[in-house]
Every structure is written in C-alpha cells, then in structure tokens.
Amino acid sequence: MSAPSGARRLRLVSATTLVVANMIGTGVFTTSGFLLADLRSPWLVLLAWLVGGVLAACGALSYGALARRLPESGGEYLFLSRTLHPAVGVMAGWISILVGFAAPMAAAAIAFGEYLRDGFPGISPQWLGSALLCALALIHALRMEGGNRLHNVTVGVELVLIVVFVVLALSRLPAEAVLQPVPNGGSPAAFAVGLLWVSFSYYGWNAAVYVAGEVRDPQRTLPRALLLGTALVTLLYLALNAAFVFAAPWQLLAGETDIGRVAARALGGPLWANALTALIVLVLVASVSALTVAGARVYARMAADGELPRVLALRTSGPQLAIAVQCSLALMLLWTASFKSLLTYIGFTLNLCAAATVVGLIRLKLREGERLAVAGWPLAQLIFLLGVLWMAWCAIALQPIESLW
Fold first, then answer.
1. What percentage of the chain's residues is helix, strand, coil (to nearest 5)?
2. Which contiguous run of DSSP H or E holds residue 268?
C-alpha cells in the first residue's frame, strides 16, 4: 500500500525528527537510576548506553535495507508479512498496536499529567494526559502538513534544550564524583537485563518505516533517516547520562526513578530541577506526537490488507480514522490502572519482534542474493540477533515471571 504520489509529503528532516522523537522519551530520564542500583558503576551504565546504541544502529541498518526493498507504510507488520508469513505479520501488527504504540502513548500521557500536576492542582493527571492525546490526534488528523511542521519545530527546540543542559551540566560535574572508586559491577546477566531496559529507551529507531508510504524518495530517504536519527540520539544519550551519573556520588543516585531531576538539583538547585522538568514535558509532547503519526500507519496498512476494517485504510489526506481509533485505545489504557504492568514487558516483546524482522531480512537476502543490497551484511544482522537473544535469555533467567507473561 503506497500512498498516492501527492501524499508523499515527508522529507529527510521530517523522517529523521520522527525517529528522534520516537526514541527520546521518559526512559532516558529514569533508566540510569535502576542501572546504577544493579551495576553499581557509572562507567558500566555508560557502557550499557553505548552498547544499546550499537545494537540500535545494527537494527537501523537492517530495517533500512527492508525499507529500500519494501518502501511502503506498515513497519514490522509489512516486513514480516512479506518475508516470513502473513500470520506472523498480523501478530507483529497487533504487537505494534497494543505494545508498541497505544501503551507507550498512554504512559507518556500519564507522565505528562504528573509533571504538570503542580501547575494545575485542580486537574487530575489523567485529564491532563487525555487532553494531550486528543489535541495531538486532532492536529495530525486534520492537517498532516501542519502537524509535521509542529512536530519538526518541537523536536528541534527539544534537541537544542537538551544540548544546552548537557553543556552546562558537564561543565559543573564535581571531580570527586567522576574520579570516585567504584566496587565491582554487577554480573553479566544483570548487565544484559539492564541493556534490555536501555533498549526500550532506544526503541523508535525504526519509526520512519511506519510512514514509508508517505516519504519522498523512500529508497534513499528512509535508510538515511534511520541512521541519522539513531546516531544523533546515541550521542545525546551518552552525554545526557554522563551528566546524570556523575552529578553526585553514585550511591545517592542509585534506584532513583527521577534521576534526571535529582541530578539537576544536585548540579544547580531547584531552578535547574524545574527547568529539566519543563524539558521533560516538552519531550513527552514530542514523543506522543511521533507515536501518533507512526502508529496510525500500522492500522492503515493492516486495513488495506483486510486484517482490519477497510475504513481505517490510508487516504490522500492521511489516516484520520486510524488516528482516532488509536487515540481511543490509548485513552482506554490511560484510564485503566492495569496497563502499567504491560509496560514492563514492552522492551522484551518489541526486541523479539525486531529480531524476527531481521530474520526475515536474512531469509529475503539469501533468496534474492546480490539483487538486495544490505548495509553491514552479515555482521550487523548477526550482532543484533545475538544481542537480542542474550538479553532475552538473561531476562528469562533473572525475571522468569515477567518474561513468561
């Protein structure tokens, strides 16, 4: 299902900002606190973020090859349907709908409400989050081009503010925190499970493939957008987490869910903490915006193939009804307390889904040979698969109940 020629509005900048906004979310501002508690070393925490970026880049190279071969919207649903089996694609489509988009949208909306609660004491976080979901759904459904401009501006401002914070924070890091001796780190299995958490923060490097049917010159633009977005976010994550884990002795930061705010307070007092909170709110807006754009295209792709009602298929002006359905599902999860347990399994599930997609690429490459150009072949694909399998095996060993779910 390719979009009509006039509907291919997205250029390299829009596709790249879509990748960046999907990747940068609340995870980068919270995960390192848990990593410090388990690994007990700021340097191991930074190593986890670096390895996570390498795995994301290997995945982006693989998805870029598939995007050149199948330059249509739909993401894993499209790829797995074409490379493995339609039934596997349908399963991946439902995983994307429920685990990949609706649940993260609801989680980001709740976080948005929580961060703004002090500014709106009479309004519950659920209502604030609901307002965000509905507002962005309307923007993208009624005027896609206007939504793209808003999205690009939001991501641009977000990146500038993150860079400013990183530069200021790194210049004020206490030497004793950077040079402090650290005990032996956690076990390799603990590192692998921590890497699974990190991979959730990186997930989104594949975002542009969901709107491939609306990208101009997708064979060239998509691979570039995937790699540019992944490389940019990897550098930002390393710099940002260096500012976090060295802002104070690691013992004071270990286990802190809001490590970003704690680190900012340690470096610059309440003013810095409040400024970073405002930045996180902006990040959440950009994240929900990107999820709204990308997720609705999975609905539209499945509808075009007859797996969902045809009325959800992509139209010239965009998948308005699919956006509405996705927003409704996210609102249902937003107001349902049990959805929180689902979020703990997102990293595990989505990594296995991405691994299946890379297996599909390998099968397609073996079948088509030199006709299919795959960057990094076969090293990048093997690194990605081995990394995912290692994370999954260690997660099963250390957290069997969560993994079984």
1. 80, 0, 20
2. helix 259-304
